[in-house]
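User: If you would, consider this record:
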Amino acid sequence: MDYRYLGRSGLKISEITYGNWLTHGSQVENDVASACVRAALDAGITTFDTADAYANGKAEEVLGAALAGERRESLEIFTKVYWPVGPKGPNDAGLSRKHIMEGINNSLRRLNMGYVDLYQAHRFDHETPLEETIAAFADVIRQGKALYIGVSEWNAEQMRRGQALAREAGFSLVSNQPQYNALWRVIESEVIPAAKELGMSQVVWSPMAQGVLSGKYLPGAPLPEGSRATDAHGGANMISRYLDDDILSNVAKLRPIADELGLSMAQLAIAWVLANENVATALVGASRPEQVAENVKAAGVAIPAELMERIDQALAPSIIRDPTLTVSPGSRP
């Protein structure tokens, strides 16, 4: 495993981060989830990402239990706040001072930890003054409940405004967590340049385009039984945008490139994301321990420039680049 700095900070994180969005607390049993976490640790992964809204808090509980007994100082734990949790009352979502303060306390209780390394604004809250949000995050840091603050799916203007206020408050935003992969490149034209300017790096989710870039979905073929695309509660709505025969045909053109590098298509997809210098880590999940062992083989892989160009050529008709697609809900969900 290789390690990279998170933004313009001194914190190093593993190039591959284990994430438990669609698995822990919902799709897989707790003992399997624990086995996946153990496989991640065995592979050298030290960074783990979750959120309070994942399975309405259960994902944090499962991750905390799976990591119990590990040396806390040897781990980097990320969680997030914004989406509805609990009974989903009027203050159970967003980035108000009330929700942030209650959110961090509840996350630490579920994780059974004294602090998290990175606390992230899971989206931009249009209903709360940004000054209130940043002041609350500053207090979370001063209280020692989080060491660093990041955001997720903020656009370039929101990141600039947030960073300016954060620096006035005595800290810096160090990261953004966007969807990014060889098909979904909406952050390239505006978000990544802004992040470089602001000293922030990307913590990427969906590096395999919800599994499409793994090559398991074939044009004209039935959806694989038990796959994410067939699970209404496990991300079927997210993957549907990619399940077009033209897109799948273009993805299939990547197989010879993966073969040439001695990689699986899933490993190629992760290595492609890590080739962007502004990416600190790629989030991968797993429903089986062996998936973790395979995915980590993408760490440290260098893809030659000519093969990067061939990837672009193969996917060109299917690549989505519109920067306006980096968007947060206009009102709290």
Q: What stands out?
A: Residues 115 and 225 are 40 Å apart (CA to CA). The chain is about 35% helix and 15% strand.
